[in-house]
Description:
The protein is of the alpha+beta class. The protein has 4 helices and 7 strands; from the N terminus they run βββαβαββαβα. A hairpin with a 6-residue loop joins strand 1 (2-5) and strand 2. Residues 1-41 are annotated as: Disordered. This is Stress protein.
Amino acid sequence: MAEMDVNGTGSTATASRAPVAGASGRPGGMEPARSQLVTEEGKTRIAEGVVGKIAGLAAREIPGVHSMGSGVSRRIGQLRSMMPGGVDASRQGVSVEVGEKEAAIDLDLVTWYGQSIVDVCEAVRRNVRDRVESMTGLKVVEVNITVDDVYVEGEQDEEKESRVR
């Protein structure tokens, strides 16, 4: 097992790929194993941005999620991702707080019109928690979701049309 500096400040947590039986509510009752924080084999550091990227990608895997971030942040994110050294678009709409053994995640997303927002958010929350926990070994204590908008197909085309001809 290796030590992880999960937020670049010296906070550490340890992860193992081997699952252990537990009452986590997951299929098979499996959850990530944890072991000693310091080992003789060395240290593994995981940046906060890595947890954010995993969470963002996991959220986007769910049908019903149109995009991540509020309208303004999506536009700014598009511009920033085009610039050299810009922010990775997969972290757009994602904010994380990481401690020694736990992570809290906040997501801003846009759902498709016609989808059950409750069902989409439940699926996003479950997938984000499962992906982050299985890939990092951190326990995700909360996944807070703000639905900023509902996307209606053709909505962008209408906004671009000029009122003047």
